[in-house]
Amino acid sequence: MEITVASLKIGEKGIIKQVCFNDIPLKLLEMGCMPGKEVELVQIAPLNDPLYIIVNGSHIAIRKEIAALIKIDLKTDQVKNLCEIVKS
Amino acid sequence: MRDRKVINVALVGNPNTGKSSLFNQLTGLSQKVSNYPGVTVEKKYGLCKLTDAATANIIDLPGTYSINPNTIDESIVLDTLINNNNTDYPDVIIVVADIVNIKRNLLLFSQIKDLEIPTILAINMSDQMERKGITIAIDLLQEELKSKTILISARKNIGIEALKKLILIQGFNKKVKKTSTLSNFSNRMDAPFFTNIKNEFKDLSLYKAWLYITQLNDTSFLTKEEQLSIVKFREDENKLARLQHKETVLRYQLINNILKKTYKIDQSKATSLRAKLDRILTHKIFGYVIFAMILMLIFQAVFDLAQYPMEFIDESFAKLSSFTKDNLPTGVLTNLISEGIIPGIGGIIIFIPQIVILFLLVAILEETGYMSRVVFLMDKIMRRYGMSGKSVVPLISGTACAIPAIMATRNISGFKERLITILVTPLTTCAARIPVYAIIIALVIPNNRFFGFSLQGLTLMILYLIGFIAAIIAAYILNKILKVNNKSYFIIEMPDYTVPSFKNIFYTILEKTKAFIFGAGKIILAISIVLWFLATNGPSSFKNADKTVQNMIVYQNLSDIKLAQKIATYKLEHSYIGIMGKTIEPAIKPLGYDWKIGIALISSFAAREVFVGTLATIYSVESTDDDTSLKEKMRAEKHPITGKKRFDLPTGMSLLIFYAFAMQCMGTLAIVKRETNSWRWPLYQLIGMTSLAYVAALFTYLLLK
């Protein structure tokens, strides 16, 4: 299964790989959500939708259906970062 | 000497950039709100004196993330800036950006810049630079952007005078450099396609032509040939979408390159306050608990605090009324003033305390950034009922007045979600229902306590709940039956938390209160006057009332006072409004009402709160005794046949239920018509809500009888 923003866990980060231009509103792109940018899942609303993300410096909330269309690569240094946070 | 010159200035910017603060700072109390012709969006504008010889006419355009519109609000920006014939077409555009989110703000700037109108970039919130660890090379940025750039702080009044000077310079700047970013990009996007566009629209800048093709709905102001070529370019929708995406990516690349050279942010200084607050305020449990507590606080404030000024207003107008009656020469005009106009105005003013308090609190919640979190929390729940998280604000506002509440639905991007919100908002219990509820509850519900709660208070609370539940159920049904093409993209920014600016809140309240006074107020006043006329005039049987009654044998032995009373009753019965009440009596009898209540129903058709005023008029026209209050008069009213109290529990409850559901507000209908651009929806709303009210009141009456 492909990893998308919808499959992130709270606190996890990813790099946007591909944004499907047919289904994704232009507005999302205009908010800074585009390939190569880092995306972090900040919070999931109760009932598991919508998702609160930080992408390209913008704090935004989007619905799961759209989040599922944003394909990402998980940030590999995630675990390392977490360790650092724990240490400090 | 130069002639006095007015420069048209448009303020454009992302939401939450402090654009309104800047607008308030530049225009102050000279600002006005009017409507764009044909559409529903308000236009905010005001004057700003630049020098003795020049003034700026500032137009505050709705906040938008991009020139490509998603909502009705946003489409105004495009319409104003794209068409030279538009009366608001600006001489100068100020793009307001905020120093923290400058990257995203610059996207809008780069689009606006391509329109080739003199543009100023005002970077707001510069007072926060140090705290946030931001450094910016403003001269270099100005050079790179090829546009006047200035640091300001609208809240702290920094840089405003310098900005005014820039407006003056740019206002007389007739040589705009043709620097379209899009032309530079076009080769990397699709060279032949854009060359084609260039050839077809020779007189236009490439970007304008591109916007005509991708964004314009109404192309009627273009020539036939231009319209045809637009249709041709629009053939391949997917290609256009792909090119738009490409354009946005390229614009961002350019912005990133510029910012790399000019803008630095020290991440270590980034405060974690937002993250901490978000963790609590959007928490799965605490989030809702806090929201529920805030809601309770709002309702407490609206009812408890507003009570005192409302009583004061009520008494003052009653005094003013009797003062006018006593001191002006008797006659029709005095009667019109004291019985029609003064109570009419009083009926409007009385709602102001509740509206002001509610909108004060809603404005604070919006200004602080908390409202976005509520939207986030509520979205999934509201979606089940065909609405959006953004519907929460209108539904809360609806408890003050449906008119500004329905106007607040404009930022909901999906048409279906917005429509359902508009249709169900009038079911929430607005301030206008309170006086009706108050008097009937006082009449039919005993003033006892039930487990420590006042029964009357509980009844009022239940009525509120009924209104809210009805709205939710109606939304659920509408969601199932409405077949409206719905393409909704829910994207909402979660802005940083800020301390609210009292200046902004003050202007927001001023604007909303004005919307109520001039939206609903005009109608209420007009109805009061018409009502007074209908109650004091009638056909020939009315004019001969004195003689008719005196000649009736049964009344021969009555004292003068009693006789006068009988004449008054007879007059009311035979006045125009009495005739109307009698006409509808058969229809409302099953609900437990008589023709006098019928009169009140008819008159309150335009505005619910008129109900109480009408009853007051009816019973005071009838009685010669001015000292007893309306409540006592209503309590004393007897059923003509059974001899029991007129306002007993079944009739009272039936009336309460009727008023909970009935669509009795012309102001709301007018607003719904304006917002949906058709008579269809307000008509459905009127028929649907009135039938619901009738059936529900009928069942209530039958059940309790």
Describe this structure in words.
The complex is a heterodimer of chains A (88) and B (705). Chain A is an alpha+beta fold and 88 residues long. Helix content of chain A is 22%, strand content 33%. Chain A has helices at residues 26-30, 64-67, 78-87, and strands at 13-19, 38-44, 51-55, 58-62, 70-74. A five-stranded antiparallel beta sheet of chain A has the order 4-3-2-1-5. Chain A is globular. The model of chain A has no long low-confidence stretch (mean pLDDT 81). Chain B is α/β, with parallel strands linked by helices. Among the domains of chain B are: 5-171, P-loop containing nucleotide triphosphate hydrolases (Rossmann fold), CATH 3.40.50.300; 183-266; 519-704, no CATH class. In chain B, helix 12 packs antiparallel against helix 13 (332-349) and helix 21 (502-536) crosses helix 30. Classes of the chains: A alpha+beta (88), B alpha/beta (705). At the A-B interface, helix 1 and strand 4 of A face helix 3, helix 10, helix 11, helix 15 and strand 12 of B. Strand 4 (58-62) of chain A pairs antiparallel with strand 12 of chain B, so a sheet runs across the interface.
| Cα radius of gyration of chain B in angstroms | 30 Å
Query: Which regions of chain B have little confidence, pLDDT < 50, spanning 5+ residues?
Result: none
The dominant shape of chain B is: elongated
The level of helicity of chain A is 10-25%
* Dominant shape of chain A: globular
Question: Beta-strand level of the residues of chain A, as a percent range?
Answer: 25-35%
SS-based class of chain B: alpha/beta
**How many DSSP E strands of chain B?**
12
In what order do the strands lie side by side in the largest sheet of chain A? 4-3-2-1-5
Q: Count the domains of chain A.
A: 1
Please state the oligomeric state of the protein chains shown. heterodimer
- Helix fraction bin of chain B: 55-70%
Q: Would you tell me the structural class of the helices and strands of chain A? A: alpha+beta
Give the amount of beta strand of chain B, in percent. 5-15%
Q: Which value, in Å, is the CA radius of gyration of chain A?
A: 13 Å
- Count of alpha and pi helical runs of chain A: 3
Cα distance spanning the termini of chain B: 84 Å
Count the DSSP helices of chain B. Answer: 31
Distance between the termini of chain A: 35 Å
CATH superfamily label of chain A? Ferrous iron transport protein A (FeoA)
